[in-house]
Amino acid sequence: MKKLTAAAVGTFALLASMAIAAPPASAVPAGCGQLTNGQLCSSGGTLGTTGTYTFTTSYWRTGGSGEITVTLGTQRKNSNITAFPLWFGSKRTQNGYVELKKSHSIDSGDCIRGVMEHNNTTYVTKWRCP
Question: Does residue 19 surpass a pLDDT of 50?
Fold first, then answer.
């Protein structure tokens, strides 16, 4: 009986330490991606339905100093293709924030993600899929 109780206490202590050591759930909203110096997000559209929708890609700069100019857009993929990014344009951050919107068509099976380019480096969000 003592061995069984000791084993149960040991197992409980191990599980408790794993729960404490587990990383917290991500605070990043759906459609966003956490970058080293900020957060890139893609929103809008009605995924799962063919049509033309307005998509917004935004960037909130939380690191670094001063305003920067970025190029924003979206990229779509489905079972047949991963399309090249559709760029919405370039814009300078104001108080660390920038967003651009554009309407474009998608098919019912398309996934969408936000894309950003700055200093010849491309950044992306996770895919949003139907």
Answer: no
